[in-house]
Structure formats: structure tokens, C-alpha cells
Specification:
cytoplasm, 9 helices, transferase, Dephospho-CoA kinase, two-stranded antiparallel ribbon, 14% strand
Length: 203
């Protein structure tokens, strides 16, 4: 089974690309969705213990938590020390189940793939990108987003150019949905062929 790490900066089309892989029958694990589940599950009491007052109705209040960790590197490290191992455990379970189900291509959707060293856990990396003006327009169209918040998010992420330099594969989503879908199909077919060739050579 080929494990593909999918990543990209905010507004680059990562969620859309993940959905396209899923539509092709590839199992997809979203780190963001895992965090949402954990904030209402295993991570909730652990986060409340470290950051009292951030739990509301059994679920972590993301806004309240954000105010506690924003600009506080030590607090952010403590939060990551709680959440990251739990996400990794979910990811490992997902890959095990995908392999047992006979999947030939599994996708790990990880926003901070390179920032957290996640490329060491996958066979190939794919970065989605788009022109800066397209990225900005997409993000600022989101409810509650401001130019200042957008710039703050960008400042915390690895620059797009560096992600593209590190990636095995790059897809430009700025060319439109049809072109993006065609490129995702091409990449999926290429990786499936690679997996088939590995089996043929016994690697």
C-alpha cells in the first residue's frame, strides 16, 4: 500500500483534493477532523486539566483555548504534547485498517506535514498550491476571516515555495476544478501503478 501525505497552506485547496481522492475510492484520514473528534473525546479532559476553563459541555471551546495558547510558545507546546500523540494513534489505526481492507493507496491529509516532520511517515508527499491572489481571495471569503488573521496564519506556516520545493508531487488548484480533478486522477493512477510494480518485483 502506498501512503500519500497531502498538505498545503491555507486556502490552497487541500480539503478539495482530499475529497477528490476519496471520490476515487482512496481511504483518507484528515488530521483536522481527528483533532475535532479528540476535542470532544479523549483529549478533552487532558486539555481541561492543563488549561482550566476551556471545556464547555464536554467539548473543548476552541476560541477559549485559542486565547490561552495564542502567542504563548510554551502553552502551544503543551497543547501539542497532548494532541499530537493522540492524532498519531488515530492515524496508525487508520493505516492498519486500510491495509487490512486491501487498500492500495491511502491518503493522510496533514496541514502541517513538513512543519511536524510528517514526511517521514509517508511514501510520497503531495502539495496543493495556487497563485497568491487566488489563495487570498479564497481565504478572505470565509466567514469571520480578516486580512490580519489571514496574515497571522500564514506567518505560522511554512512558505508555499518551500513546501513545493520539498514535495514529491505538486498540484496547482488555481487552474480550476476540472483541471485539478484530472491531475488528482493522474496522480492516483500513477501511484497505484507504482504499488502494482512493487508487488510485481516483491519489494
Amino acid at each position: 500500500m502506498i501512503v500519500l501525505g497531502l498538505t498545503g497552506s491555507i486556502g490552497m485547496g487541500k480539503s478539495t483534493a482530499a475529497a477528490m481522492f476519496a471520490a476515487l475510492g482512496c481511504p483518507v484520514h484528515s488530521a483536522d477532523e481527528a483533532v475535532h473528534r479528540l476535542y470532544s473525546g479523549l483529549a478533552a479532559p487532558l486539555i481541561e486539566a492543563r488549561f482550566p476553563g476551556t471545556l464547555a459541555g464536554g467539548t473543548v471551546d476552541r476560541a477559549a483555548l485559542g486565547t490561552r495558547v495564542l502567542g504563548d510558545a510554551a502553552a502551544l507546546r503543551d497543547l501539542e504534547a497532548i494532541v499530537h500523540p493522540l492524532v498519531r494513534a488515530e492515524e496508525a489505526r487508520f493505516l492498519r485498517e486500510a491495509h487490512e481492507a486491501g487498500a492500495r493507496l491511502a491518503v493522510l491529509d496533514i496541514p502541517l506535514l513538513f512543519e511536524t516532520g510528517g514526511e517521514t511517515r509517508v511514501d510520497r508527499t503531495l502539495v496543493v498550491t495556487a497563485p497568491p491572489e487566488v489563495q487570498r481571495a479564497r481565504v478572505l471569503a470565509r466567514p469571520g476571516m480578516t486580512p490580519e488573521r489571514f496574515e497571522a496564519i500564514l506567518a505560522k506556516q511554512m512558505p508555499d515555495a518551500e513546501k513545493r520545493r520539498r514535495a514529491d508531487l505538486v498540484v496547482d488548484t488555481g487552474a480550476g476544478m476540472a483541471a485539478t480533478q484530472a491531475e488528482i486522477r493522474r496522480i492516483a493512477a500513477m501511484l497505484l501503478l507504482e504499488d502494482e510494480n512493487k508487488k510485481g518485483t516483491g519489494v
